[in-house]
Each structure stands twice: as C-alpha cells, then as structure tokens.
C-alpha cells in the first residue's frame, strides 16, 4: 500500500496523485473507487493514463474521515485488476465551544467539545502570550484526549490567546477556535493605616511578591460611608512600589473593613483585608463636682461628644503618662472618683478620652486642684481703735498660694462683709467700726480653690469717751457727764476716780453716760477716768483732774 500525503485546499476537498508505478500496466482503462462514497466525482470514475501522477480532486468529502481508494486496471486481457490502494484522511472540522476557566494566578482550565461532524484523533492547543511584560514563549500542546486540559506555569495577571485545532491522523483543521483570557493577578502585600483622623483613613500597602502582571489596584471600604467608597489606583512604575489611597467623609469612631486587590484586564486578585477605625470624637466639658471636692479626693465629670460618633467606653486618667486608667462604659454614669495618693492643694491634670475598639480620641484635659487644709489661727487682737490684727499658720502637708480673709460686723443688718486676699500669714484689718464684734474667717487658697474656713470672733476696741462736764450738783455732789463717738458702740462704761493724796481708787460700772459723784472729799484733788466697754474690751480712758472745793463750814 502506498501512502500519499494529503493536500488540503478547502475543508470539503480531498486531493491526491496516482503514483507513476501504477502506469506500468500499459494502455487500458483505469477506474478509481473510494469509500465512504460521499464525494464528487462519484466513486468508480475512470481516468486516462495521462492523469497518472497528476493532482486529482475529490470535492464534497466528509470532514475528519478516512477515505480508502482503490485503482483498477482493465484492457483486452485483464479486467478490474487492483493495481493500487491507499487510505487518505480528510481535514477535520475545528472543535467547538472552547472555554477557559481561571483557576488561579498560574493555572487555567480549557474545555471544549469535538467537531459536530466527522472524527478527530486528537487536538492541538497553542498558547500565545499577549502581555508585553510576559517573557514566556508560545507553546503547542498535542492532546490525545478530550477535555479538560490544564494550562500550567502561567504568569499571574498575564493575558493569553488560546488557539485550538482538531487533529485527524496528522491533519490539523484548516481553521481553529480561539479565545483570550487573563490569569488572576497576585494578591497585594500587607497594608497599614498611614494616617487617620475622625473622618479620614489613609491606607498604605505593599505590592504583590512576586509582582506578576497587573495595571492597577482596587481599594474598597465597607460600610460605604466615604465620599468614594471604591477607588482605582494606577500602578505607577515597574517594579511596583508601595501605594496608597485615602477615604474621606467617614463616621468618627466607626470600624471599617478595607480590602485591596490587584486588577489585570478583567481579572481581580484575592483581596488583602484589614479592619481599621476612625478616631472617635473627644468628650467635652471635663470638670469636677464642687460639692465633692475635698483635700484628698475629687469627682470628675464630663459630657459625651456633641456630634455623632461611635465609641464604646471612656478612658480617664491623672496625666497622660499615668498608667492607672479608669475605663467607663458608654452607658454608665460619667463620673470617676480619684481618692488615692492625692495631696491637699496640689493641681492634677485629668485626661479624658473616648475609645472605639483600641483607638482613642484626642485627649481633653482639665486641671483640678484639691482643697487645701484649713489654717490654724494663732492670735487675734484689737490694740488700736478700728483695727484687728490676725495671725495664722497653714497646715502641714498642704499647698497654698494665698489666703482669703472675710470679715463682717456681726450686728450689721444685711451686710455681705469684706473680702481680702493676701500671701502673708498675718493681716492688720483697718477702718473697722469701734466697739463692734467681728466675724473673721481665714481660708487657705490654692489655684482659686479655698479650704474650709477657720472662723474667729474678735471685737474692736471702742473709742474713748469724752468728758463733757464736771460740776457741783444741787444735792451736794458732783455731776459728771461724757459723750461717745457716734461710730463707736459700747454696752457700758467704767468710771474710776482716784484721790490724789491717798491714791484711794473708786470705780463705778454703769450703762448711762452720766454719773453723780457724791463721795468726794472736800479739798482733795481727784483724777477721774472714763472708759467705754464693748464686748469686755475696754477703750483707752479719757482723764480729767478736779480739785474739790471746801465748803464755808469747813473753813
């Protein structure tokens, strides 16, 4: 049997040559029969000897079919002598329904169906790289089985063309089916929050390693609160470096899911995911409870943020660097009592933050001063009219920067009193009304926070009375009258008169401003003193000297 190479011009034609050796039979009739019988000219056609070794065309043949040819010779002596036979395949039809499924960055799966008409003994799959940066070479794969067929060792993110032929006994289909696909690009590297505030998250991430092929990143955020919740970021260079994207208009303190993917053509990588929170809004109005402020403790209060913000607790501490922090749930009463290791009169910085997850707000601070300890008043005196001197000493282990003195006349109606602030530990109060009982309170002050007052009561020295008249009375005694300053107040008077020669002293305590002296010795001289008395405090005396005349009967 002689095999002749098949030459295909159209899928419905089969061309062949009868070898020269077949013409050695001489002159006669040559008849060609073939099967299957589909074709034109029909089987059992005759050829002239001149067509031996010439190209003969059989049209309308079946695709992908093995045709068997027989050549018979007849003349006057021989009838239908078989002188040549050959099996010749026709060109197959191409396969159909080619599809490529992406299984990852380096593997894809090709599936197809065989030709609808005719047979095939295998397939040829050509893989042609289309990406500029893909340095792999085209590959031809001869496949002797049906689908699926795995395409391996691909470049992540690269694009390829698949050309698929049917093969029948070494004959490729004259046309092929084709499809393009792109492999899944590599996943980006780890990423971090590069910057954040109450409404913004700026994320920074590393490119894939190995980088593979891709042209941009897709960055998305959920919940979709941002002004733009999905961003496409171009790859700036090769090899790629770190990239970044910012989301604006977010809710303070909210937890967001952020994913970064590489994009190559229509393929998107598996995401790199992370959760990040925006910074919650800080609390407001950090203050203390004045009613609970003491020397060794105080209560801190505050208000929640004034604008919408998500957070789950508050963090309260004395000073930013203090490791002792109080955590107060959002629903609990907003108060913290500090009562450990505090000293009277010292100022403490209280720091309050809102906390969402593990993200704290900017701190809000308030300076709170503990109440100083009360002073101890060591002495009070009124040595001069209209004046009171007060001396005190501060408590040990107490800090103060000044002292507040408040004083008022106990008998004055609706008097708010007077207020002084001094730095010394003594004061001389002046311009006071004589003969009044004054309430005096002294408080230690530290940063405008005063201690509990220490109160004393001290009367002022009354003004001295002025003797107006001393003259004999009709009853035989002496009338003594005096007057007092209108601003001075006294509740009684003391009148002392001393005989000059004997130094004999006599005293009378009265409440009126006159007195009849009826026991004076005629001819003697007397020193008369009048004192004003107010709250047991005596004024300076007003003195008067008088000689008592002898009567005419004593002469």
Automatic annotation (TrEMBL):
InterPro entries associated with the record: ECM_Regulatory_Proteins, FN3_dom, FN3_sf, Ig-like_fold
Highest taxon, organism lineage: Eukaryota
Fibronectin type-III domain segment(s): 94-186, 187-282, 371-466
Keyword line: Repeat
Gene3D superfamilies: Immunoglobulins (2.60.40.10)
Protein name: Tyrosine-protein phosphatase 10D
Lineage: Eukaryota, Metazoa, Ecdysozoa, Arthropoda, Chelicerata
Gene: Ptp10D
